[in-house]
């Protein structure tokens, strides 16, 4: 018998599929455990060896929990809506639903490219997914529930008194009986007060406009990241260095009417909830910073010679007498209205320039100082002195009020700004209000000072000064204490085709929700996926995209009469819509009536272990917590938090290869022959490089047309040596290694073990295919404990103490490692154990049967095969994990080094329970001792039981 991984793995993958070995039950008497991976976006590039790292780790854990007797839910699906598929469709003239399907299921695309398909790739690695619960966010039977959740958000408001979302009907009830003066809600700013009588007298359209100011999802004119090249709005995390991550197109800030989600209502709960979940501190800190809670005050400054007021939020109201200028965000709505004629051209040019920088870029850039004086002056609320008003891109429109009162003596950015524009018109001298020196830098501490030159605040500290100034501002009706959050409402509209359609039609410009019984509203066919000629989103190209309120159907667009047939929303939902609740759909994936039944939700509750990338810290992980809390408020989700424990896997890096082209030529110099010559490094496909870093020159020349007549300066032996560098694994760097190739050559079990063996799960580590042969050799050595070239060689012999010690060391170590997510050290322990058992010539069933179970979470295919060869029926997957017995690790004997005058001469094995006297008696009678002493009597015999024996003199 020989170890044939391809044959073994195909056999057991077929068995698992046919027997639904990993199907989880919703009504099990076993305790539940829910393990979830961040589901993939199915691109045509497929998986490379870096992608399965987290999946393998979660699979090891899932299998281990099954061995422990848990009913494990370990599902998989696809985050299949999104911009990449749409852009690919535009480029190739294919339908995104077709390319998405091929990318998942495999096949040949329109261009003749053979696509392996994510499902086949995942199956090949042997994951214990419950495929009966697969979801695809682009399937109508999935996104009908995303549409339903959107409607629930639209029909809800956030009651600060109850600190939760409530049905909009309760707000309407308050309005109709009390008006809105006593309503304590999260809502738009500057809402006008009205009485119950006024509300009841309002026309229906007016009431709807008012309710939009309170709803948890609402239409508003919002500053967005607009990408003309892609024809859509982008999220901050889709922008890199001021351009779109996809395509590298310019991104500008502009105002558009968009759907938004009032995530800001949940800011405090999102902050406090971090205390209750087992996540890394780095991820928690990222979310804390993104939420950005700050306690301070709002202050109103009157703009001189106008009726305008500038509201600012400050965390340091105690420094109000140190204000020497004000700075507005370039996008602030009052900029155009207060800028003087003399400054207009300069201000407009600056606004145009800064519109090309993303908010993230502006926040991160603390070195660049830029700004323009508007020519306007505000009035200090207490001294009535004029304060020059500037604009600067270090102030963001969406944070606070989009304006700051600049106190250079107490803030580093204000200090740098004031010094940069020192002496210019509109920049006052820095005023020091602290009893500290600020000649070199601002004094930003909140303690260790007394206020000076601050009128009624003189002599006070931060705490007393803050309290006093808020009292005085309230007397003037020009400010009050306030808690502020950096977290802003999330823009929820995208000018794309390939996304969830909104279940919304418009009557007189006001949004109306389609009744939930008519969902899903299915994405229509369009001829092209670009915006229309007049700038409408791609759905503006749809010929059948209007809502008939009588038949409750989508009908031809040209039938719109705004009487019974109305236009449908042309935007689609963003990529994070479907991923903000998908873990709950897995709980009850085939429920047609609701996103999941109450029973299923009550049983599974929340995800016990979530594994995915840290890049989602302030995107998906924040939005999903928000939706979960909302659904909890409305009585649908059973828990406040969706993910109990989160593990972020590190990145597997590729080992890139480079050839070196002499500048201005088509000649390539071997790495060791460059010798100061000016060369350009060029990425080359790693498949052309052997384990000695030698380039296959003929393959390189036939790789691309422009390389066909290339010349090579080689080493003396005629070899061309490439350069190597560790980089992110990427198709563009030609350093991608596919798991399919590894599985075909070495088997999936080798791939699984090797990826776990590379290093700690949460750290980045380079891939080196050369190291995989050692793991393959280990599996062959494991097999030789069970069978030789002819047959099974397992015996029923009683195990020795050494056999049992090797086994139980491994049981203990592996169980501890899996619980602690230290998977790499488990693989090391397997290798140690197999080496020890091989040396011991162990072929005992009592050892090898439990060993197969212990290794099965990591190498499930060979474990199943060995389990079967041992005569067992059924799968090894749910067999109880072996119990560690400490008694087998208790040492009963000790091999003592016996030394004479400090030099070890021989060893002897003695029982550990002997006394000093008994040990001395045995040693002195030993023939080797007698020979060493040559008739002498030692002056001293030093014995430390369990450690040393030393005869002196």
The total count of helices amounts to 30
Got a strand count?
A: 37
The major beta sheet can be summarized as: 7 strands, mixed
Q: What's the N-to-C terminus distance?
A: 61 Å
How large a portion of the residues is in β-strands, by DSSP E?
15-25%
Overall pLDDT confidence: 94
The gross shape turns out to be: globular
- Class computed from helices, strands and strand pairing: alpha+beta
Unreliably modeled segments? none
Radius of gyration from the alpha-carbon trace, in angstroms: 35 Å
Q: Percentage of helical residues?
A: 25-40%
Organism: Flavobacterium xinjiangense
Protein name: Leucine--tRNA ligase
Enzyme class: ligase
EC number: 6.1.1.4
Please explain how this structure is put together:
The protein has 953 residues and is of the alpha+beta class. Among the domains are: 147-264 and 491-573, no CATH class; 293-485, Valyl/Leucyl/Isoleucyl-tRNA synthetase, editing domain (Isoleucyl-tRNA Synthetase, domain 2), CATH 3.90.740; 652-737, no CATH class; 770-888, Isoleucyl-tRNA Synthetase, Domain 1; 893-952, Ubiquitin-like (UB roll), CATH 3.10.20. Helices cover 32% and strands 20% of the residues. It is built from 30 helices and 37 strands. The strands form 10 sheets. Strands 13, 14, 15, 16, 17, 18 and 19 form a 7-stranded mixed β-sheet that branches. A hairpin with a 3-residue loop joins strand 36 (940-944) and strand 37. The model has no long low-confidence stretch (mean pLDDT 94).
């Amino acid at each position: 018998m020989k170890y044939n991984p391809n044959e073994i793995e195909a056999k057991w993958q077929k068995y698992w599929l046919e027997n639904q070995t990993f199907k989880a039950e919703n009504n099990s008497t076993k305790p539940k455990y829910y393990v979830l991976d961040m589901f993939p976006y199915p691109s045509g590039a497929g998986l490379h060896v870096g992608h399965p790292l987290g999946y393998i780790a979660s699979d090891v854990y899932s299998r281990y929990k099954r061995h422990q007797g848990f009913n494990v839910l370990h599902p998989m699906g696809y985050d299949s809506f999104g911009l990449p598929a749409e852009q690919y469709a535009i480029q190739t003239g294919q339908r995104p639903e077709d390319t998405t399907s091929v990318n998942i299921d495999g096949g040949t695309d329109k261009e003749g490219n053979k696509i392996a398909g994510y499902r086949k790739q995942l199956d090949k690695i042997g994951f214990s997914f419950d495929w009966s619960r697969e979801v695809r966010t682009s399937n109508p039977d999935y996104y009908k529930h995303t549409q339903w959740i959107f409607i629930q958000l639209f029909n809800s408001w956030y009651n600060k008194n109850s600190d939760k979302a409530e049905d909009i009907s309760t707000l309407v009830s308050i309005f109709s009986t009390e008006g809105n003066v006593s309503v304590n809600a999260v809502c738009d700013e500057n809402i006008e007060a009205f009485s119950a009588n006024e509300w009841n007298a309002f026309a229906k359209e007016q009431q709807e406009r008012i309710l939009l100011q309170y709803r948890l999802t609402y239409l508003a004119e919002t500053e967005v990241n607009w990408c003309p090249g892609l024809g859509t709005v982008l999220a901050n995390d889709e922008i890199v260095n001021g351009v779109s991550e996809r395509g590298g197109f310019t991104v500008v800030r502009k105002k558009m009417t968009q759907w938004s989600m009032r995530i800001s209502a949940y800011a405090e709960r999102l902050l406090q909830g971090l205390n209750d979940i087992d996540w890394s501190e780095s991820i928690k800190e990222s979310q804390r910073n993104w939420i950005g809670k700050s306690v301070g005050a709002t202050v109103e400054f009157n703009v001189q010679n106008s009726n305008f007021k500038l509201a600012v939020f400050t965390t340091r109201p105690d420094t109000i007498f140190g204000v020497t200028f004000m700075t507005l965000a370039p996008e602030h709505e009052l900029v155009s209205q207060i800028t003087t004629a003399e400054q207009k051209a300069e201000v407009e040019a600056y606004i145009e320039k800064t519109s090309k920088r993303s908010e993230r870029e502006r926040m991160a850039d603390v070195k660049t100082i830029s700004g323009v004086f508007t020519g306007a002056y505000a009035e200090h609320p207490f001294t009535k002195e004029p304060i020059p008003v500037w604009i600067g891109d270090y102030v963001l429109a969406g944070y606070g009020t989009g304006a700051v009162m600049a106190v250079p003596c107490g803030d580093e950015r204000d200090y740098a700004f004031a010094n940069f524009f020192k002496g210019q018109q509109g920049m006052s001298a820095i005023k020091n209000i602290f009893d500290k020196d600020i000649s070199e830098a601002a004094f930003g501490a909140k303690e260790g000072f007394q206020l000076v030159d601050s009128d009624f605040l003189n002599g006070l500290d931060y705490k007393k000064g803050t309290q006093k100034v808020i009292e005085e501002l309230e007397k003037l009706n020009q400010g009050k204490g306030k808690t502020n959050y950096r977290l802003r409402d999330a823009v929820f509209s995208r000018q794309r085709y390939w996304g969830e359609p909104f279940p919304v039609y418009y009557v007189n410009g006001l949004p109306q929700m389609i009744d939930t019984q008519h969902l899903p509203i299915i994405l229509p066919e369009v001829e092209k996926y670009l915006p229309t000629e007049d700038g409408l989103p791609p759905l503006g190209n749809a010929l059948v995209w209007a809502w008939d309120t009588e038949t409750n159907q989508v009908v031809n667009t040209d039938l719109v009469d705004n009487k019974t047939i109305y236009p449908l929303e042309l935007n689609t939902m963003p990529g994070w819509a479907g991923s903000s609740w998908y873990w709950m759909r897995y709980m009850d994936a085939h429920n047609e009536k609701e996103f999941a039944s109450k029973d299923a939700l009550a049983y599974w509750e929340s995800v016990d272990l979530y594994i995915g990338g840290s890049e989602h810290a302030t995107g998906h992980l924040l939005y999903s917590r928000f939706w979960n809390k909302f659904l909890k408020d409305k009585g649908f989700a059973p828990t406040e938090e969706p993910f109990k424990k989160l593990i972020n896997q590190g990145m597997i890096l590729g080992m890139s290869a480079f050839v070196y082209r002499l500048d201005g030529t088509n000649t390539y110099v071997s790495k060791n022959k460059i010798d100061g010559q000016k060369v350009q490094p060029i990425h080359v496909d790693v498949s052309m490089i052997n384990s000695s870093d030698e380039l296959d020159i003929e393959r390189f020349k036939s790789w691309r047309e422009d390389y066909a007549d290339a010349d090579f300066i080689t080493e003396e032996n005629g070899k061309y040596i490439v350069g190597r560098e560790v980089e992110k694994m990427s198709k563009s760097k030609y350093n991608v290694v596919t798991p399919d190739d590894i599985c075909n050559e070495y088997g999936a079990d080798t791939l699984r073990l090797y990826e776990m063996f590379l290093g700690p799960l949460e750290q980045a580590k380079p891939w080196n295919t050369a190291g995989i042969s050692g793991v393959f050799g280990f599996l062959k050595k494991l097999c030789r404990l069970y069978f030789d070239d002819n047959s099974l060689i397992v015996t029923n012999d009683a195990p020795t103490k050494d056999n049992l010690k090797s086994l139980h060391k491994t049981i203990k170590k592996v169980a501890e490692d899996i619980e602690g997510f230290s998977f790499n050290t488990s693989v090391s322990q397997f290798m140690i154990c197999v080496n020890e058992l091989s040396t011991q010539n162990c072929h005992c069933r009592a050892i090898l049967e439990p060993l197969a179970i212990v290794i099965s979470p990591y190498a499930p295919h060979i474990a199943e095969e060995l389990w079967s060869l041992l005569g067992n029926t059924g799968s090894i997957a749910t067999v109880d994990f072996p119990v560690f017995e400490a008694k087998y690790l208790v040492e009963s004997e000790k091999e003592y080094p016996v030394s004479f005058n400090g030099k070890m001469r021989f060893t002897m094995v003695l029982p550990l329970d002997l006394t000093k006297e008994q040990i001395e008696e045995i040693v002195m009678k030993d023939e080797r001792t007698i020979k060493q002493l040559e008739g002498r009597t030692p002056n001293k015999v030093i014995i430390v039981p369990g450690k040393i024996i030393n005869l002196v003199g």
